[in-house]
């Protein structure tokens, strides 16, 4: 597990196996000292009512009466279920829900290349505006922090910060994989959230930093300067660790492949 670092406050935009059993949108208990990324986003939204930008926030509190779409994820075809109007907040899924890629006669989508661990977090974000562990604002310290996994206010226990990628054969940072998935799905707020959360991690192994950086560069456009700047800063911040491990020298000798 990676250690957590507190992030000083900045303003930023708001944003199932059939999977409502393990990953349903549960009720979170609020705290006097902390509020969630979603709560902060709701406050920001109040001050943006005159904006001409369309509201793409998840339909929190809606009656959710739209049809259910079944999504088969990964080579093992794990089943997830979601409401069509929730999925449609992603341009990628909006096109699917218009019938361009749905299997004939059924609301069913196949995503054989996606990882269930990643898609589960995407779905949680679409319903709740965040994914576990949540990003919480500590009002007393005026910082953003990752949710304590042992917290009585909704903590679910420790969660791995890396995911094994069958495509690369390596462990990759989960937030980086979520960022790249959000890029494909057209979810810009999820990209910002994933990058913010990854910035709160520390103690990342050198090999994980490099493998995740390669994955990020390969799965995002060259114009994505924020992600590249993030990894450059992460490598610079970890330069002493790289030097001790010899990882960077080995990478340079191998041409960075």
Record keyword descriptors for this entry.
globular, three-stranded mixed β-sheet, 10 helices, single chain, 257 residues, alpha+beta
Provide the residue-averaged pLDDT.
76
Count up the helices: 10
Which sequence of SSEs, written as H and E, runs from N to C?
A: EEEHEEHHEHEEEEHHEHHHH
Q: Rough shape?
A: globular
Distance between the termini: 26 Å
Q: Low-confidence segments, ≥5 residues, pLDDT <50?
A: 10-32, 43-58
Largest sheet: 4 strands, antiparallel
The helix fraction, in percent, is 25-40%
Quote the beta fraction: 15-25%
Structural class, from secondary structure content?
Answer: alpha+beta
Radius of gyration over all CA atoms, rounded: 19 Å
Count of β-strands? 11
Order of strands side by side in the largest beta sheet? 2-8-7-3
């Amino acid at each position: 597990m990676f250690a957590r670092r507190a992030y000083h406050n900045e303003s930023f935009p708001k944003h199932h196996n059939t999977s409502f059993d393990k990953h349903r949108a549960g009720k979170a208990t609020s705290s006097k000292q902390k509020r969630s990324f979603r709560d902060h986003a709701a406050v920001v939204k109040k001050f943006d009512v005159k904006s001409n930008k369309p509201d793409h926030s998840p339909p929190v509190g809606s009656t959710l009466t739209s049809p259910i779409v079944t999504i088969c994820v990964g080579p093992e075809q794990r089943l997830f279920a979601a409401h069509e109007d929730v999925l449609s907040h992603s341009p990628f899924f909006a096109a699917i829900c218009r019938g361009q890629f749905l299997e004939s006669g059924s609301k069913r989508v196949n995503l054989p290349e996606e990882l269930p661990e990643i898609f589960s977090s995407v779905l949680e974000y679409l319903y709740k505006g965040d994914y576990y562990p949540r990003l919480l604002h500590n009002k007393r310290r005026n910082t953003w922090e990752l949710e304590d996994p042992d917290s009585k206010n909704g903590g679910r226990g420790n969660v791995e910060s890396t995911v094994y990628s069958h495509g690369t054969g390596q462990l990759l940072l989960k937030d980086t994989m979520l960022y790249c998935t959000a890029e494909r799905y057209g979810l810009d707020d999820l990209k910002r959230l994933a990058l913010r959360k990854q910035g709160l991690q520390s103690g990342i192994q050198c090999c994980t930093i490099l493998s995740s950086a390669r994955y990020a560069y390969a799965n995002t456009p060259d114009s994505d300067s924020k992600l590249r700047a993030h990894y450059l800063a992460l490598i610079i911040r970890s330069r002493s660790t790289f030097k001790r491990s010899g990882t960077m020298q080995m990478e340079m000798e191998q041409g960075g492949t």
